[in-house]
Specification:
Elements: H1 9-21, H2 27-34, H3 37-46, H4 56-62, H5 65-68, H6 72-85, H7 89-101, H8 106-109, H9 112-125, H10 130-138, H11 141-146, H12 160-170, H13 178-187, E1 191-193, E2 208-209, E3 212-213, E4 218-220, E5 230-232, E6 235-237, H14 241-250, H15 253-266, H16 284-296, H17 301-309, H18 312-315, H19 327-338, H20 347-357, H21 380-393, H22 400-412, H23 420-430, H24 438-450, H25 459-473
Antiparallel strand pairs: 1-4, 2-3, 5-6
Helix pairs in contact: 1-2, 1-3, 6-9, 6-19, 6-20, 7-9, 9-10, 10-14, 12-13, 15-16, 16-17, 19-20, 19-21, 21-25, 23-24, 23-25
Length: 481
């Protein structure tokens, strides 16, 4: 693997941390976090302050459809703006993580406003108590509609949500029985929506107004709740939904299941979720670190991740570049590197569409299982899309981020020619401390040499540096986080 010699190894560790907790880092971001030291960087990640993203009122002034959010491209692009421009990318990475686990789709829910509200809920509660997060999820109008809990009545139980909270959201297959699913569903009867959408069996209010749907709100209908005795996971009582969540959260299977998801998203690619009942975790020690933190910190997701990030397992070089970037990570990370979206632009819709072409439609998972990730992200078609998008995005030397890279290279060298090896080294450093294999490195150096003399202070030199950056983001290694 190539190495960059002009900064210390702490930069590599911080760069690793920022790839996993965000979407990579510009050089300015890397230097800001590295100056704090590793523990200081963790403190800043978990206490980021104001996200200072592109203002919502500005977005809506230029994109009327992103006020209404009736169509999925508008809703996905509204979130895309936030991911690309936020100063707190860890919040968005957490929201993306829970969107992947608690997969909910506008394709069925229809209304984008409640989908965006769900993402905001993930930002607010995603690093807190898992108990509180499950309560908020169970009250979330998008989730209620997605899994039909508005049709879960005391005299006609619908098991959809009761099943998925156990199978896919909290415990995993093999840790509960069919009877537990039924009793869980009974406990969530009456958890519904106040201004019921038109497709509901209750037909309370047709909320398809002349200008789109109004935002739905959670309602607990006591008259529709089954208040009979229930037996769930070996405990018996007059349980409601919150009681069920209490029992779920204290069960040892729950943190093991969540820890495995966290490992898959933040540490290294795991087996696809359907294989988990039959395959042990790839790193049981890492899972146990997070399980211990879960029980020692009142079910805190943030404590689980902090313990993981502080561990030698996470810091090990073998853990770096051990995950295939998701389409959203590729798109958002490349846009942040290039310095796009300082102002509202229709290019945001191209970015959102690119995620879909690569296999990850924002707010549109294919099913309640979400996306498997890992090798599933890569196919012949998706690879072409990934390379083309990244190369096109960094191909303009006038973009703020690309111009910053060119200026930094010019500052590192005396006016005149930059040696091919040094130029490649600088570019790999400035795109986020990217490490590449020997074959890739040889190819990059050969390309730089074939371009001839490079004076970074000239337009010709800027064009040659930009071409080299395009080749770097087209490499196999750029697909890894």
């Amino acid at each position: 693997m190539s190495t960059v010699t002009n900064v210390g190894t702490d930069f590599d560790l911080i760069a690793h941390l920022l790839r996993r907790t965000g979407f990579g880092a510009t050089r300015d971001e890397l230097e800001e976090y590295a100056a704090l030291g590793y523990e200081g960087a963790l403190d800043k990640l978990f206490n980021p302050g104001d996200a200072d993203a592109l203002p919502v009122d500005l977005i809506r002034r230029y994109h009327a459809d992103q006020s209404d959010l009736r169509i999925p491209p508008s809703s996905g692009s509204f979130w895309m703006y936030r991911m690309v421009t936020t100063k707190a990318p860890f919040e968005e990475k957490i929201a993306l993580f829970w969107h992947r686990v608690f997969a909910t789709g506008q394709t069925k829910v229809i209304q984008g406003k409640v989908m965006i509200s769900q993402i905001e809920m993930f930002r607010k509660y995603g690093l807190g108590s898992f108990r509180e997060l499950l309560i908020q999820l169970s009250r979330d109008p998008a989730m209620i509609l997605w899994l039909d809990n508005q049709d879960n009545h005391k005299d006609a139980v619908n098991e959809n949500y009761g099943r998925e909270i156990l199978e896919l959201f909290a415990m995993g297959v093999g840790n509960y029985t069919e009877e537990d699913v039924k009793e869980c569903a009974r406990a969530f009867t009456g958890w519904t929506i106040a201004n019921m959408p038109y497709m509901s069996t209750k037909m309370r209010n047709n909320t398809l107004r002349p200008y789109g749907y109004i935002a739905w709100q959670y309602e607990y209908d006591e008259s529709d709740h089954d208040d009979g005795e229930k037996t769930f996971l070996g405990e018996t009582g007059n349980f409601n939904g919150e009681d069920i969540i209490d029992i779920i959260c204290k069960n040892p299977a729950t943190p093991r299941f969540i820890a495995r998801h966290l490992y898959h998203h933040f540490v290294a690619d795991e087996f696809p979720v359907p294989q988990w009942p039959f395959e042990e975790p790839k790193d049981p020690e890492a899972i146990q670190i997070m399980v211990d933190a879960y029980f020692a910190n009142d079910y805190s997701i943030g404590a689980m991740l902090r313990a993981m990030f502080a561990s030698d397992i996470f810091k090990a070089e073998s853990t770096r570049f051990a995950r295939i970037k998701s389409p959203v990570e590729i798109v958002v990370g490349t846009l942040r590197l290039a310095g796009d979206f300082d102002w509202p632009t229709d290019d945001v819709y191209k970015a959102t569409a690119a995620c879909t072409y690569m296999g990850q439609q924002l707010l549109g998972p294919a099913s309640v299982e979400g996306w498997m990730g890992g090798d599933d992200w890569i196919s012949t078609g998706s690879m072409v899309q990934r390379i083309n998008f990244a190369s096109d995005t960094v191909g303009d030397p006038e973009k703020r981020g690309i111009k910053s890279i060119i200026v930094r290279i010019a500052e590192r060298h005396e006016p005149g020619n930059v040696e091919p090896e040094a130029l490649v080294d600088d570019c790999l450093d400035l795109v986020g401390r990217l490490q590449v294999g020997d074959d890739t490195l040889e190819g990059l150096v050969a390309f730089a040499r074939d371009q001839g003399d490079v004076d970074a202070s000239t337009d010709d030199g800027a064009g040659k540096i930009t071409s080299l950056l395009q080749l770097i983001v087209s490499s196999r290694e750029y697909q890894l986080a």
